[in-house]
């Protein structure tokens, strides 16, 4: 692999599209391969072993396509598989956890940090353990948001009670918390709604992960050169039409022309 090799991204749903969008903004010259594992979604109902098996299959696909680095664009995937994959493969693998944790510790003035995420992510304690490892004096409040992932996958605007449900989750955050980590790649889709109920500092893990990707590839002198805009290839193993419907919110039609259904 070389500078012109692709960046691989994989996710279990639509949340990874927010990562893809941010990579496109920060690194427009890079070629990108996006793998959407819709067939096995929702991951919140799967075991750690199952998720690790899915992640190995996806990594093998991405490496066969000569990816020079991989972003795990899913907090559940990251919680279950990040270290497992790093031990197995000799390419840079960026998860959703580390960048958000580092940014939250820097942003928080009183080191009282809340994390919102899926039940799987919260129950894994991955954010809490990572924060405490870097900042032992920090207090971490974990907020499981069971319904949000499904609501966002099926269409946030379709739920009349969406703000009531969101408020119910965010009301669980203690008043002294001064920083909130968005511990899921879906949540940037509803950032404006989240800000209605949490008005302090918000850290988007997906943004921090893209910054980490830029840093790692730069250190390895693997950033693509030239002025030509990179291509995006989408590989989806689920409902391609439904995926396109969501993707059109973030990308132009010309960016969606290379879309392939895989089994």
Order of helices and strands: EHEHEHEHEHHEHHEHEHEHE
Report the sheet with the most strands, covering strand number, pairing sense and barrel closure: 6 strands, parallel
Helix-strand category: alpha/beta
Tally of helical runs: 11
Largest sheet strand order: 4-3-1-2-9-10
Contiguous uncertain segments of 5+ residues: none
> In whole angstroms, how far apart are the ends?
26 Å
Helix percentage range: 40-55%
Second rung of CATH, namely the architecture of the largest domain = 3-Layer(aba) Sandwich
Name the beta content range: 15-25%
The gyration radius over C-alpha positions equals: 18 Å
Give the CA-based shape.
globular
Number of strands: 10
Give the CATH topology of the largest domain: Rossmann fold
The total number of structural domains is: 2
What's the CATH first level of the largest domain? Alpha Beta
| Mean pLDDT rating | 90
How would you describe what is shown here?
By secondary structure, the protein is of the alpha/beta class. The chain folds into 2 domains: 7-95 and 208-261, Rossmann fold, CATH 3.40.50.1860; 98-205, Rossmann fold, CATH 3.40.50.1860. The protein has helices at 16-26, 48-64, 75-88, 98-107, 119-124, 126-134, 148-154, 162-170, 191-197, 205-219, 240-247, and strands at residues 7-11, 32-36, 69-72, 93-94, 112-117, 139-144, 179-182, 201-204, 232-236, 259-261. Helix 1 (16-26) links the parallel strand 1 and strand 2. The model has no long low-confidence stretch (mean pLDDT 90). Helix 2 packs across helix 3 and helix 4 crosses helix 10.
